[in-house]
Amino acid sequence: MAEYKDLDRKVIKLGKQVVRMCTEAGSGHPSSGLSLVHLTTALMYRVMRYDPKNPWNDASDRLVLSAGHAVPVVYAAYCDLGGVVGWPERPSELRFDDAMSLRDADSVLDGHPNPAIGFPFFDAATGSLGQGVSVAAGLAAAARVDGLDRRFFCICGDGESREGQVWEALDFLVDHKLTNVRVIFNCNKQGQSDYVSEQQSAETLARKAEAFGLEVKVIDGHNWDEVFDALTAEAGDKPMVIVAKTVKGWGVNELQSADSHGKPLKEESLEQAMADLDARAAELGVAELEDTPAVELTTPEPSGKSTDGPVSAGSFSEAIAAVGLDADLEKKGKLATRRAYGAALAALGADERVVALDGDVQNSTFASYFAKKYPERYFEARIAEQNMVSAAAGVSAAGKIPFISSFAKFLVRGYDQLEMAAITNANIKLCGSHAGVSLAADGPSQMGLPDLGYMRAFAHAARQDGVSAIRVMLPSDAVSAFKLTELMANVDGLCYMRTHRPDVPVIYEEDTEFFEGGFNHLIDGEDLCIVASGYMVHEARRAVDVLEKKAGLSASLVDAYSLPLKTDEILRIGDDCRGQILVIEDNYVGGVGDEIAAAAATSDLGVMVRRMYVRDIPKSAKTPEGTLKMVGLTADDIAKAAQQVFDQSEA
Amino acid sequence: MAEYKDLDRKVIKLGKQVVRMCTEAGSGHPSSGLSLVHLTTALMYRVMRYDPKNPWNDASDRLVLSAGHAVPVVYAAYCDLGGVVGWPERPSELRFDDAMSLRDADSVLDGHPNPAIGFPFFDAATGSLGQGVSVAAGLAAAARVDGLDRRFFCICGDGESREGQVWEALDFLVDHKLTNVRVIFNCNKQGQSDYVSEQQSAETLARKAEAFGLEVKVIDGHNWDEVFDALTAEAGDKPMVIVAKTVKGWGVNELQSADSHGKPLKEESLEQAMADLDARAAELGVAELEDTPAVELTTPEPSGKSTDGPVSAGSFSEAIAAVGLDADLEKKGKLATRRAYGAALAALGADERVVALDGDVQNSTFASYFAKKYPERYFEARIAEQNMVSAAAGVSAAGKIPFISSFAKFLVRGYDQLEMAAITNANIKLCGSHAGVSLAADGPSQMGLPDLGYMRAFAHAARQDGVSAIRVMLPSDAVSAFKLTELMANVDGLCYMRTHRPDVPVIYEEDTEFFEGGFNHLIDGEDLCIVASGYMVHEARRAVDVLEKKAGLSASLVDAYSLPLKTDEILRIGDDCRGQILVIEDNYVGGVGDEIAAAAATSDLGVMVRRMYVRDIPKSAKTPEGTLKMVGLTADDIAKAAQQVFDQSEA
After folding, report:
1. Average pLDDT over every residue of B443-455
2. Alpha-carbon distance A505 to nearest alpha carbon in chain B (angstroms)
3. Quick one: B96 and B211 in the same domain?
4. What are the tens digits of pLDDT across the range B56-96?
5. Residue B577 sits in a domain of what CATH number?
6. Which of A192, A582, A617, A644 should one mutate to test binding to chain B, selecting the residue with the greatest count of B CBs within 10 A?
7. Nearest-by-Cβ selection for B361 from A193, A259, A409
8. Contact between A449 and B464 using a beta-carbon 8 Å cutoff
9. Whether pLDDT at B350 is above 90
10. Does the beta-carbon distance from A175 to B454 stay under 8 Å?
């Protein structure tokens, strides 16, 4: 077929480069790359509507390489195309030979796709498998919100399709009729340790995808006609899955063996590999053909939309009134932090950048206020948290500000996806509701308890720009929940907020300001300093009362509402309180207590830090007081511990 | 149909009790329970081969209630049956009225199924959705190993089936032909916040399950003939899925509304609910019928197998030789901890209780040694970590000792499942390979970095018996990896071990003993104390050399290989080293450094603790040295920091 000669020539060129660059790197997955050489070439040189010179064009089609390990073929093509990398303010153009820098410490060609280090062709870091379809779905959701006619191609491995998240993502595509996503299953039959299961064969995948309600095309992934027909077929009513049968290690004999996954050729095998590909070129009749750019691309106009500028939630009382909570608050003098989150989210929705997703618990997290007001910007993700987190990464990559919510316990389901979003520098705001033990009656299967240990790990891991990979917000009352929700919308990057089930008193004036890393010194005392967060601030306040009334002790109380925390200032308060700090948390170890203790252990002040946290796996009790009692965290428990701390400091 | 009259009578009785007990508790999910009243009654009074008086019978059929929130109906039935709860050494028999203790702080009837608090009818804590099919699959895998003819019924909600893990589990069932599992999808059409998606309708679920290769029966879940036909149908070549169409809130009008999920009736609605059910009884012609036990159960003989006693891996050198690593070790003087794990696992396999699972990376984690030697006890879980973790919980519930392995990074995928296993007190041993940054070239998408923050949260959360919910093992060399693998097999409960990719020198004699919470004081010095773990022990050893040679400083070196750690003893070593400790880790914050710093902050010794850990999201580099340099953790970086610590202590 004459019309593909230049592409055949290109495939040989890229194939050789893929083999060479992995050998040069001493690692990488050349066989996976080769299985995709035709599909990638078709997409990147012909099908996608984009401009390799402007990867920031927000109206472009995009490729999500879910099978991240196959990335050398994309790098080879992008270098061949002179693609631009870096940042808008300091772009740089790749040359063909730059591909050989694969995996170098100072190369943007990371081992797996990684936009955050300056490879903006990609929207998401991939490599932990099974997440790409969700990212593409999120990009598509955002494109619908923006009214942009963009297409999203996602390449997913056959073995990779074992990940349940892939099927969550297909459900999401069908639910939301995201027909501008085209999922390509690369069926090269080989996984890492073995051939893939019959459950992941091309035939079974086709059958499964059809049952999930998608349109399915099964093709030979090395046949140009079939490849182009499938990639350019008009989108119908259903999202489309292309099941592409490919050859792992296409064109290179040594790379076709079952144990060649993730192994580069040794230096001494290179010559034979080149000869294999030359022989392929001869078979294809392109051995003598000059390499041409072979590019036939159309470039869409950028949308011109700005994604900059602050987002406002307005005033607390107006936002609360807008969702009908004012009367309730007035009557009870109390409001749950989760309701205030919902009110803030609904208020922030006035800005079109704000998008929300929730996992079938919007009536518990109170994302419902937003969903009702802005249904076109609310994407119900159902009971599938992994997909929800990765989809939010896609929404974020499109310049939106996605808020996602579920029970703190259930968000754990998406922790790996969250880490990939952190690597990506995605701009997602998570709200984990029903955190801690105050959920009570439902028991430990619904309680968010190890979340602070995990999130704090990221609070002290810096992105390339020095910003915390995840910032943690721990509101104690409705005002702080409201303000911190607004704060999250206005900082770039991942944020995690904990909210709680029970109604709690409002302790802040509505004009109180809240800051990253901040805390509030609520009560000034001198005998010891109690630091609490979230729900526990209320128990701690009662404890301060008890201490004063029963023991005549004057305790300071600090509401530490954010991580990473300004620990220096808290240590100084502790220093003023006879050098004694007692930290109270309703989670497992690893949160605010460790934050302050670790600072104390490097400080010359000699402040002592005791920690009260959840030290036992809880069970159900009918009331928050019941579970707090069970884990030793009631106001009385705190007062008792504080008294001991004081007595020891006296001794 | 006369033959079901006693069961119809029972269903009315149980239905009333479900409604009452949730109202009494003030929370719970009566409507979900009612949708299952016929299926539960059929299973618990007729179909299951078990003895409510001996829930520890290891040859019994079992029910896994994946839709854990529906548990009140199971409790009601089990109380009606006089089922036994507690522990083998102190069993107690429930009475019908005990159901009213639902969710009490001192009741074994927890908000969601929770065997660990003394409800041995269940094998796994459920309630975080989508995990039960995997648990049933693990139970079935163990039954095959033991040659036991047991059946496992798993009830999963329709909305719940959105969780990708459910589909991972179905793949696993088909892969391993686990035909003794019967999955029941309870299609009551309602989720929490809305009706379920069309993607989770009975029709779509049937189509999907068929495409996944299962035999599918669609039934009316309130029709006795259909229920019994499906539950008792002979198992064929394929595992079976029963798609049961049910009515949420069956029998009680008020509980059939779309917003009734998870809401108990108010006290004042009880009378009408009882009247509704009485009317149902009248329709069924059983209003006047006496309640009978209605039980027709057969009880299998317990297997008589013992699950007690120590497990031995034998000697290090023999185990290494048995997998052909001896020559390699001899030649290089080095061996990767992941290989030693594999060798230990293969050696432990001599004990039939040991079972292994891996997620398509057995040739990287070296579970391959076991897989080759004991294929009948190796279950390849493919690229689906969530299912792997929950399946291991099932294997553990059958009295086996499951070891599961994948990259530390990919195990994050199963953290929620791991937490459910922790709540269950499951006896799973996890090995996360390629931990830290020494993986290097593949980049951050493959590196285990926040794992210690998460695991340490559980290291300080106690089970009912006071044992740490997760014990963490951090081997630094092949001998310690080997010994700690053996240690994990011999302690009851969840353990997590980190192994690393690179070969490292062997630093321990093969008769060294290792203990829970232990550490080794490798080098005795006096100017400061360096504490390191895992791979970093080798960098720290080099740093100690540098300090001695370049600065004439004498540093102590401690290998802290286990969490929770005996910090008191380490603080004393620090105290002897001018009160200065420097902790080195190749993970994000939240691990050994925080462990020691937190202890120092409550200690009177006044020891200072500085922490070096991964403070930046890394990227690829070609060598471990390259990534260590990137994150400031080379031997030279450590030596430099140690020098500063020393200088400050002098100042």
Report:
1. 98
2. 22
3. yes
4. 999 999 999 999 999 999 999 999 999 999 999 999 999 99
5. 3.40.50.920
6. A617
7. A193
8. no
9. yes
10. no
Does the residue A130 lie in any domain?
yes
Pick A419's closest partner by Cβ from B128, B191, B450. Answer: B450
Q: Quote the CA–CA distance of B127 and B110 in Å, as a whole number.
A: 11
Number of domains in chain B: 3
B565: pLDDT strictly greater than 80? yes
Domain assignment present for B614: yes
CB contact under 8 A, B443 and A111: yes
Structure token pair of residue B321: 């030789």
By Cβ distance, the residue of B107, B168, B192 closest to A164 is: B168
Mutate to test the interface with A, among B102, B199, B447 (most CBs of A within 10 A): B199
The residues of B carrying an active-site annotation are: 385
For residue B523 the two structure tokens come to 């080098």
The pLDDT score that the predictor gives to residue B306 is: 85
Q: CA A337, CA A356: separation in Å to the nearest integer?
A: 18
Count the helix, strand and coil residues of chain B and give each as a percent rounded to the nearest 5.
45, 15, 40
Residue A88 lies in a domain: yes
Judging contacts by C-beta atoms under 8 Å, the chain A residues touching residue B463 are: 616-617
Q: What are phi and psi of B270, to 5 degrees?
A: -60, -40
Query: Within this chain, do residues B439 and B569 fall inside the same structural domain, yes or no?
Result: no
Task: Give the global pTM.
Answer: 0.98
Percent of the residues in chain B that have a pLDDT greater than 90, as a whole number:
97
pLDDT higher for A305 or B379? B379
Q: Do B420 and A445 touch (CB under 8 A)?
A: yes
Same domain? B221 vs B245: yes
Asked if residue B430 and residue B475 are part of one domain, the reply reads yes
Distance from CA of B302 to the nearest CA of A (A): 30
**Is the confidence at residue B100, as pLDDT, over 60?**
yes
ipTM of the complex: 0.98
- Whether the per-residue pLDDT at A651 is higher than 80: the answer is no
Same domain for B467 and B376 = yes
A590 to B457: CB separation less than 8 angstroms, yes or no: yes
Dihedral sign from CA coordinates of B582, B583, B588, B594: negative
Mean pLDDT value of segment B215-244: 97
Alpha-carbon dihedral angle through residues B154, B158, B159, B165, given to the nearest 10 degrees: 40
Element at A165 (helix H, strand E): helix A164-175
Are residues B272 and B323 located together in one domain of the fold? no
Residues of B in contact with A445 (CB under 8 A): 68, 111-112, 114, 125-128, 420, 423
The band of A260, judged by pLDDT with boundaries at 50, 70 and 90, is confident
Q: Is B618 helix (H, G, I), strand (E, B) or coil?
A: coil
Cβ separation A213–B192 shorter than 8 A: no
Averaged confidence pLDDT in chain A? 97
Q: Are residues B278 and B369 in the same domain?
A: no
**Sign of the alpha-carbon torsion through B159, B164, B170, B173:** negative
| B2 pLDDT higher than 70 | no
Domain containing B573 equals 521-650
β-pair type (B519-523, B555-560)? antiparallel
Answer for the pair A607, A600: CB distance below 8 angstroms, yes or no.
Answer: yes
- pLDDT at residue A261 is higher than 90: no
Largest CA distance in chain A: 94
- Residue B195 pLDDT > 70: yes
Mark yes or no for CB contact B462/A617 under 8 Å: yes
Taking CB atoms and an 8 Å cutoff, what residues of chain B touch A502? none
Which of A437-446, A482-491, B1-10 is the least confident region?
B1-10
Residue among A126, A608, A621 minimizing CB distance to B445: A126
Whole-angstrom distance, CA of residue A500 vs CA of residue A440: 11
User: The domain that contains B194 carries what CATH number?
Assistant: 3.40.50.970
**Predicted local confidence at residue B651, as pLDDT:** 76
